[in-house]
Amino acid sequence: MKQNSFYILTGLVVTALVGIFWLSLEWNNALPIQIGFIIGVIILYLARSRVVGIIADERSIAISQKAAFHTLEILWVVFFTFSLGFIVWTSSNFFGLERTPTFRFMREHNPTDMVFGRPFLNPGFIQLLFLCMIIFLYVGFKFYYERKYGGEDTDEE
Amino acid sequence: MSALSSITSGSTAGRIQMKNSIKVFRAKANITQEQLANALGVYRQTIIAIEKSKYVPSLTLAFKIARHFKVNVEEIFECEDADLK
């Protein structure tokens, strides 16, 4: 398989997944998008292993490793901070403390805030936000290390 | 791991400067960066980075480069004693 064919296949899989995601929302059933996403990832993984030509060399792999490592470091700190806050926010009752409002409290007193008004309070959205952050951080680090390790494509003398 | 360690040594490269004469050998052999990259199975950017001493290649790649030009590694790559301290 050529690289361009792989990119076209990736586009098709992503488009299909967007459609399945919408269907999942309509059917109010998480399984189609969850199963579809895993199948999509497997298809792309298998297709990638059949791409001919160079898809990674030692320098690009090393840059990816460095970018991934620093992304993980930052993500870990942010995610841990968020998780600590979330535990305090939602689990005070569990620890026998009733000082902070819990999700249950919010749901009972202002349910629209939970469902419609503030959808970003939904843990699913927050996790998606973190996943988007991973992509931005990773791409940012990749650009940084590409430049640092001489990736600029200069004309041959 | 070897690739990571080689780039790590490149990242501390304010101190370690692995000089090389790939450009000279390439000119003698009359081949382009692209041709050398294809022969070694790496991207052209990697050859550019090595030539500019911005990236220190792994031992495997260093030997591949040397064998491509039919010389010893030391004839292409040069590391001064002061850089190793």
What key attributes describe this structure?
heterodimer, A: 157 residues, mainly alpha, B: 85 residues, 434 Repressor (Amino-terminal Domain), globular, disordered N terminus
Write a brief caption for the model.
The complex is a heterodimer of chains A (157) and B (85). Chain A is an all-alpha fold and 157 residues long.
Helices and strands in order:
The complex is a heterodimer of chains A (157) and B (85).
Chain A lengths: L2 H25 L3 H18 L9 H34 L11 H7 L1 H7 L5 H26 L9
Helix pairs in contact in A: 1-2, 3-6, 4-5
Chain B lengths: L1 H10 L7 E2 L1 H8 L3 H8 L3 H8 L7 H10 L4 H4 E2 L2 H4 L1
Antiparallel strand pairs in B: 1-2
How is this structure best described in words?
The complex is a heterodimer of chains A (157) and B (85). Chain A is mainly alpha-helical. Chain A folds into two domains: 1-55; 56-151, no CATH class. Chain A has helices at residues 3-27, 31-48, 58-91, 103-109, 111-117, 123-148. The longest helix of chain A is centred in the middle third of the chain and has 34 residues, at 58-91. Chain A is flat. The mean pLDDT of chain A is 82. Chain B is mostly helical and 85 residues long. Chain B has a single domain, classed as Orthogonal Bundle (434 Repressor (Amino-terminal Domain)). Chain B has helices at 2-11, 22-29, 33-40, 44-51, 59-68, 73-76, 81-84; strands spanning 19-20, 77-78. The chains are: A mainly alpha (157), B mainly alpha (85). At the A-B interface, helix 3 of A face helix 1 and helix 4 of B.
